[in-house]
Amino acid sequence: MPQTFEKTFFLETFGCQMNVHDSEKVIGTLIAQGYRQVENVEEAGLVLFNTCSIRDKAEQKVFHRLNDFKKLKKQGKRFGVLGCVAQQEGEKIFERAPYVSLVAGSASYRNLPQMLVQLEAGNSRVTGLDDRQTDETFETEFTARSNPHRGYITIIEGCDKFCSYCIVPYTRGKERSRSSDSVLSEAHRMAEAGYTEIQLLGQNVNSYLDPSGRKSFAQLLAAVGEAPGIHRVRFTTSHPRDFTRDIVEAIDSLPTLCDHVHLPVQSGSSKTLRAMMRLYTREEYLERIRWIKEARRPISITTDIIVGFPGETNSDFEETITLLDEVGYDGVFAFKYSPRPHTPALSMIDSIGDEEKSKRLAIVLERQREIQRTSYCRHVGSIIEVMVEGKNEARGQWIGRTSQNKTLNFTAAAEKSPQIGSYHPIRVTASFPNSLVGEIVA
Ligand code: 5AD
Ligand code: SF4
Per-residue pLDDT for 32 more than 60? Predict the structure, then answer.
């Protein structure tokens, strides 16, 4: 007789917003199959990790976590690895972590109900690995969004860009877009259910290619922004190569489209960009930045940077620093280059030592902190609308988010406590490099 396990599950998510949203799909599917979500591993019959493999450190974290819980297998618990590490490592995970009995990549979540049946029947090696990775799991009918005000919609999966350092095209497969009609009906359904903010998701969200040929990305963005009841629309992540001027025009003409663009540059050196196979030069990137800056509304710009890519000289690195100064980003996510399996950069010599990478990373972060110290300061004295996200009880401050995606912590009189998810004008009274402080306007 196979040992039975309790139909309770614990799910931990690692990595990007795509993974966070994938977890919402997994949670909804499990609940529809009669499972109950619990808050800790001890209470769970089934323990799931939705994993990220973008850098080696992220991948190692998953295996460490699995190791921590190894002994719990004896208590009849089952373990599953989902997401990018699952797709990348496949059945090898069973060898490395024999207490794992489910390995499934993101393209196979539609088949989770069948996989659960196999698990329940005692199968200790259940897999959902899609070699072609062309399945679409944009949404499932069960998607359980965790926030009642702000929700994600996947509009494009996968990536065909093959930047030389990046594992995503191998873990998330070929680029495939969802029809604009399907995206719009989801947006309308969400608006009717009370959501006021929608975030369109895709590895390269602006590479969107409507299979029905009806709408460009900018047109889709505008159409979602016009859905009755929708107050804010965000989109992430944009690829500079596919970033067209009509996206800026759409933001400019429709106040519901948030004034924020995340446009990863990776490096300020055209030579390094070529080695990274990023498909644009420093000058072409800066041209897009110019379009954004020429908008009538001030649009906030954030980016991703990789330091220590193979062959990055001091002068290449210096070009990244001058780019930071030239653009004046409102936020930078910076990473040390990490060699990944399958990628073309793996065959280049990882010539820059970890110490030097750390040094370059610290220089980027320090320079950026100074830039933000000045730029966040400019908001002091102005009135900005926020969506209320929560409360920091210890500080007695409410936590809000601006259209530019900045955190604005504010105070409000006790009798005027705002509702989570509501929108309020806030007068900004102080600034830090990563947040603003203010008070609610009566
Ligand atoms: N090493 C370091 N950073 C990476 N990223 C992607 N692949 C790697 C890698 N191999 C970063 C890029 C990307 C972000 C999501 O992660 O900056 O934009
Ligand atoms: Fe990775 Fe480049 Fe695709 Fe982004 S565009 S997911 S960095 S391969």
Answer: yes
